[in-house]
Structures are given as structure tokens and as C-alpha cells.
């Protein structure tokens, strides 16, 4: 028997992209790479999205578990957590695993797991300025966002704004165009999603440390 091979993205193709991500994270803590998502990977994420009817998206909460609140003044969008048995998720989970292992080797980050969700922002939806992790209070280390929107026009809003951790000045404004990759250190960089003027699809994910205690496996979320 031959092992089943994932032929949609070849590991050899990853090297240059992974290295430019690692170099930028090392020097400035964040990176924006327009149209960098490998096309086969983007296609499989679109498959994943296509089978998700809008009613399968959950209205996103802020916080988790008992702390979860649906605060429409902070965040308005819908999400679907990507799981192994979601159609189209295989290449994405394989690619993020390879990226995680590369960054661990290159930057000694000790990243243990990855969680991600598809998000849908409809007209008027936004996500106010926030950080993805609070120092000492979370095991989210590195945030990753990719956009799945073809033909995004400059007047359609929905930009991701990333702020300087020290001065809070605007560092960069990212148009959520198809295949654009964004990574930043989760505890460092405040960011926000400006109100969108059209449906806006993205995948947001987090690489995490392992915080299991006494053999109780830390649930990814
Ligand atoms: C998030 C987030 C950014 C984006 O989900 O925490 O900040 O551009 N997303 O969708
Ligand atoms: Mn965020």
C-alpha cells in the first residue's frame, strides 16, 4: 500500500515563502504578503467556504466559554471553526502544520498547536481595535489571517489596520484581497477591521503554546 499523498501543495514550494515570513517576524514582528497564499491552497479554502451555508456561521462572541458575550459594539461577524473533517480543510491544515514546524526550527517558538476559523463580515460588520492575546494570560503566540475576496476595490472598506505597539500609530492598512497573508505576534500588535461595504471572507488562525497541566490536554479553544 502507498501512503496517501497530499499533492495540492508541494512541501518544496513552501521554503521561500516560509523563510520570508520567518525573516520578517524576526525583524519586525509582523508581515503582510499580498497574493502569497499558494493557489491550490486558496482553491481548497474556497471549497471549504462554498459548502458552508451562511446559517452554519455562528455569530462570533468576544472571549470564550462563560465569558463569551455578543458585544455588537466590539465585534460583528460570523465564524466557523475549521475542523479536520471539513471538506477542503486538509491542505490548509497540512500547510499550517508545515509552517508551524518551520517557524519552530527557525525561530525556536515552540508552537504546539493551531486553531483557525473562517469568518464572514457582512455589510456594516467590523471588529474594533483589539489584541488577540493578553500578556501572560493566553497561549496564543502568533496570529495568521488570509483573505479570500476576489476583486476587492479600494472603496469597499473592510481593511485590517495594524497599530504600532508603542506609539499606537497606524502601521499598515491591509486591503483584504484574495490570497493576501498577514502574520503578527498576537500579544504585541493591536489591530482592527474597518466596517466593510461588501461580504468579506477571511480565515483567521492562531499558533499556540501547549499549556496542558497534569496530563489534562489543553483544549485548543
Ligand atoms: C480576528 C481578527 C482580522 C481580519 O479574527 O481576531 O483580527 O482581518 N481578524 O479578519
Ligand atoms: Mn484579531
In this entry the ligands are: N-oxalylglycine, manganese (II) ion
- Tell me the overall shape: globular
Compute the number of helices: 3
Looking at the overall shape, the CATH architecture is Sandwich
What is the CA-atom radius of gyration, in angstroms? Answer: 17 Å
Strand content: 25-35%
Helix share, percent: 10-25%
Major sheet attributes: 7 strands, antiparallel
In CATH terms, the superfamily is q2cbj1_9rhob like domain
CATH topology type = Jelly Rolls
What's the number of domains?
1
Order of neighbouring strands in the sheet with most strands? 1-10-7-12-5-4-2
Give the overall pLDDT as a whole number.
86
Given the helix and strand composition, which structural class is it? alpha+beta
Report the uncertain regions.
64-69
Description of the molecule:
By secondary structure, the protein is α+β, with helices and mostly antiparallel strands. It has a single domain (13-208), classed as Jelly Rolls, CATH 2.60.120.620. Helices cover 22% and strands 27% of the residues. It has a 7-stranded antiparallel beta sheet, covered by helices on one side. It has a 5-stranded antiparallel beta sheet with strand order 3-6-11-8-9, with no helix packed on it. β8 (160-163) and β9 (170-174) form a beta hairpin. α1 (11-28) packs across α3 and α2 crosses α3. The longest helix has 18 residues, at 11-28. The protein starts with 10 loop residues before the first helix and ends in a 13-residue tail after the last strand. The site of N-oxalylglycine has 9 residues, from β11 and β12. Manganese (II) ion binds next to loops.
Amino acid at each position: 500500500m502507498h501512503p496517501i499523498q497530499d499533492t495540492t501543495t508541494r512541501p518544496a514550494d513552501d521554503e521561500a515563502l516560509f523563510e520570508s515570513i520567518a525573516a520578517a517576524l524576526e525583524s519586525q514582528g509582523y508581515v503582510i504578503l499580498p497574493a502569497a497564499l499558494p493557489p491550490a491552497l486558496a482553491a481548497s479554502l474556497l471549497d471549504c467556504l462554498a459548502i458552508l451555508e451562511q446559517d452554519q456561521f455562528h455569530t462570533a462572541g468576544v472571549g470564550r466559554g462563560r465569558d463569551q458575550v455578543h458585544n455588537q459594539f466590539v465585534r460583528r461577524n460570523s465564524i466557523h471553526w475549521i475542523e479536520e473533517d471539513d471538506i477542503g480543510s486538509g491542505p490548509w491544515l497540512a500547510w499550517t502544520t508545515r509552517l508551524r514546524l518551520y517557524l519552530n526550527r527557525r525561530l525556536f517558538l515552540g508552537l504546539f498547536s493551531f486553531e483557525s476559523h473562517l469568518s464572514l463580515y457582512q455589510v456594516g460588520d467590523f471588529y474594533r481595535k483589539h489584541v488577540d492575546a493578553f500578556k501572560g494570560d493566553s497561549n496564543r503566540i502568533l496570529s495568521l489571517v488570509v483573505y479570500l475576496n476576489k476583486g476587492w476595490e479600494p472603496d469597499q472598506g473592510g481593511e485590517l489596520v495594524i497599530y504600532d505597539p508603542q506609539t499606537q500609530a497606524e502601521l499598515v492598512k491591509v486591503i483584504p484581497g484574495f490570497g493576501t497573508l498577514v502574520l503578527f505576534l498576537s500579544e504585541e500588535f493591536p489591530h482592527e477591521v474597518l466596517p466593510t461595504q461588501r461580504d468579506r471572507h477571511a480565515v483567521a488562525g492562531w499558533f499556540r503554546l501547549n499549556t496542558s497541566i497534569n496530563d489534562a490536554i489543553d483544549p485548543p479553544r
